[in-house]
Amino acid sequence: MSDQQLFRSAMSRLSAAVNIIATDGPAGRCGMTASSVCSVSDDPPTMLVCVNRNARSNAIFRRNGKLSVNILAKGQNDVSNRFASSKLTIDERFGPESDWFRRTTGAPLLNGALAALDCTVSHIQEVATHSVFFCGVESIVLGEPRQGLVYFDRSYRETMALAAFGGGCA
Ligand SMILES: Cc1cc2nc3c(=O)[nH]c(=O)nc-3n(C[C@H](O)[C@H](O)[C@H](O)COP(=O)(O)OP(=O)(O)OC[C@H]3O[C@@H](n4cnc5c(N)ncnc54)[C@H](O)[C@@H]3O)c2cc1C
Questions:
Q1: Which of 4, 37, 58, 65 is the most exposed place for a label (fewest CB within 10 A)?
Q2: What's the gap in Å between 167 CA and the centre of ligand 1?
Q3: Model pTM?
């Protein structure tokens, strides 16, 4: 097994939430599926998203400077597959306009997501094959407390249910 295959096998054991990263603006509307997404800081609320430099979305996220992170729920495998398919047009990926709403930045937010975070790109770091987008969170919409969708061992799995609406704090 090559070093790259070994690394990929190790990463297949790293459970990761599945997200749709979406944008709209002067460079146009686009969106893609991403699991390389995480929280950086809660003060100010900051996230990062790793996007392949070959992905067409990369330049559009960069030019619009705004994007949404939509955390998928159990049963949204089809949404993930649509936004990961390079065979579909952008309109086919997004489906009906009624599936989306807008808040602060103008980026599309997904109805039915576990949580949708509306962000402004603060800076971008190039690392090997990927661009790391650091994003300031402008507004947050919490969806219904359902089970989440994760990617583990190269397959979709579902998480346990959220303990309580709003994050499960006692
Ligand atoms: C569960 C899951 C998690 C994922 N997580 C991530 C992630 O964290 N980060 C990430 O970057 N991707 C991730 N992907 C992959 C990503 O969703 C897909 O690559 C998606 O198609 C990107 O959309 P796009 O419109 O930006 O790129 P597309 O235009 O669909 O391009 C996708 C790939 O196709 C190739 N391609 C594009 N245009 C051409 C062309 N004209 N000719 C030849 N080849 C071309 C490129 O290699 C490119 O990387 C994930 C996919 C899944 C299913």
A1: 4
A2: 31
A3: 0.94
Helix (H, G, I), strand (E, B) or coil at 43: coil
Average pLDDT over residues 21-28: 98
Q: Is 57 in the pocket of ligand 1 (CB under 6 A)?
A: yes
Is 84 close to ligand 1, i.e. is its CB under 6 Å away?
A: yes
Separation of alpha carbons 140 and 46, rounded Å: 12
Residue range 80-109, pLDDT digits in tens: 999 999 999 999 999 999 999 999 999 999
Pocket probe for ligand 1: among 29, 64, 86, the residue whose CB has the most ligand atoms within 8 Å is 86
* DSSP 8-state assignment for residue 149: E
- Between CA 155 and CA 152 the distance in angstroms is 5
Q: How far is CA 35 from the centre of its chain?
A: 7
Answer whether residue 166 shows pLDDT above 70.
Answer: no
Residue 54 CB–ligand 1 contact under 6 Å: yes
Classify residue 133 by burial, with Cβ atoms within 10 Å: 0-12, 13-18, 19+: buried
Could you give the count of Cα atoms lying within 13 Å of 47 in the half-sphere of its Cβ?
24
Q: Which two tokens stand for residue 49?
A: 């998203």
